[in-house]
Design brief:
It contains six helices and no strands. By secondary structure, it is mainly α. The radius of gyration is 22 Å and the shape is globular.
Length: about 150
């Protein structure tokens, strides 16, 4: 039994190290994929419009009381916006949307997001978002640039 115990510990130790290495390699792959996605989004932003994400980050300060952006963050007064772009309005899980927003069938593309940020009540009357809108088109463009990068 004495001879088997050290060998068993050695095998278990090697298996543990091997498993740890696989997790680290998997995380590296995820990080690379995340960077690729962000680079692709930035490239698309430059092709589609000239929004400034750095300026958009400052503009987002007026949104952060109601919205979170990162995966796994809780909803606030408004829904978490992680991965919202390209999806149907009202599709974030575990958030209680207004029936008006759910019935709208709006897809969050650039044009609808721009119209929403300009005046949410004009786009979807009687929705629950208490925000008068962002009138300056350049401000909206910059905010959208930031949101598209931060919510992917």
């Amino acid at each position: 039994m004495k001879n088997i115990t050290p060998k068993l510990f050695l095998v278990l130790f090697i298996l543990t190290l091997t498993a740890c290495g696989k997790d680290e390699q998997k995380n590296e792959t995820i990080d690379v994929q995340s960077n690729v996605d962000q680079t692709q989004i930035l490239s698309n932003l430059k092709d589609d419009f000239a929004g400034d994400p750095e300026r958009g980050k400052r503009l987002y300060l007026q949104c952060r009381a109601c919205h979170s952006l990162k995966k796994g963050e809780p909803h606030k007064i408004g829904p978490n916006l992680y991965n919202f772009y390209g999806k149907q309005a009202g599709s974030q899980e575990r958030f209680n949307y207004s029936s008006e927003l759910l019935d709208s069938k709006i897809l969050w593309d650039y044009d609808n997001l721009d119209r929403w940020l300009e005046n949410p009540q004009a786009l979807i009357p009687e929705n629950k978002m208490v925000y008068v809108g962002m009138r300056n088109p350049k401000d909206r463009e910059d905010l959208i640039a930031y949101l598209l990068i931060e919510t992917q």
